[in-house]
Design goal:
Helix 1 packs across helix 2. The protein contains five helices and two strands, in the order H-H-H-E-E-H-H. Strands 1-2 form a two-stranded antiparallel sheet. Helix content is 61%, strand content 4%.
Length: 137
C-alpha cells in the first residue's frame, strides 16, 4: 500500500471510521465514507474502486470479509496498523516536514510541556537527518 497516494489515505481513514460498525461495512459504505473524507477530489470514488482497494487491504491482512456476507470488518491488528500510519503521517511527518521548510525557528510555547520539548528535539534531529541526506540546507 502506498500511503503517499491520496486514495489510499482516504480508504485507510474510511476503514478506521467504519471499524465501529457493529455488523461491518459494505463496499458502498466504504466508498461513501471515502468520498466524505476526501472531499471534492474523492467525489468520483465508486464502490467498484472500493472493492479493488479492499482486496489490497485484505491482502495486507488489515481487513477481512465476514463469512456468508458481503460485509467487511477491520482486524484488530490491522486497525492498530492503520491508526499508527494515519497518526504518524498527519501528526508527526507532516509537521516535521513543515518545520524543516521554515527558515526562521518558531518562537515556541510560553509554557512548554514535556511533549513540546520532545517535538523540539525531534525537529532538531530530523533537521540534521535532512541536512545529511541533502534534503534541507
Amino acid at each position: 500500500l502506498d500511503f503517499n497516494k491520496p486514495r489510499t489515505r482516504w480508504v485507510a481513514q474510511a476503514v478506521a471510521a467504519l471499524a465501529l460498525a457493529p455488523r461491518g461495512f459494505t463496499t458502498s459504505d466504504l466508498a461513501g465514507q471515502a468520498q466524505r473524507l476526501g472531499g471534492p477530489p474523492a467525489s468520483s470514488y465508486t464502490a467498484r474502486q472500493a472493492a479493488y482497494d479492499l482486496k489490497k487491504f485484505r491482502g495486507k491482512q488489515l481487513v477481512r470479509r465476514i463469512e456468508g456476507t458481503r460485509r467487511y470488518e477491520a482486524l484488530p491488528t490491522g486497525l492498530k496498523t492503520l491508526a499508527a500510519l494515519i497518526v504518524l503521517r498527519n501528526h508527526v511527518i507532516k509537521p516535521l516536514l513543515a518545520a524543516a521548510e521554515q527558515t526562521t525557528p518558531a518562537r515556541g510555547a510560553q509554557h512548554p510541556t514535556a511533549l513540546d520539548h520532545h517535538y523540539a528535539a525531534l525537529r532538531i534531529e530530523m533537521h540534521s537527518v535532512f541536512h545529511e541526506l541533502g534534503i534541507a540546507a
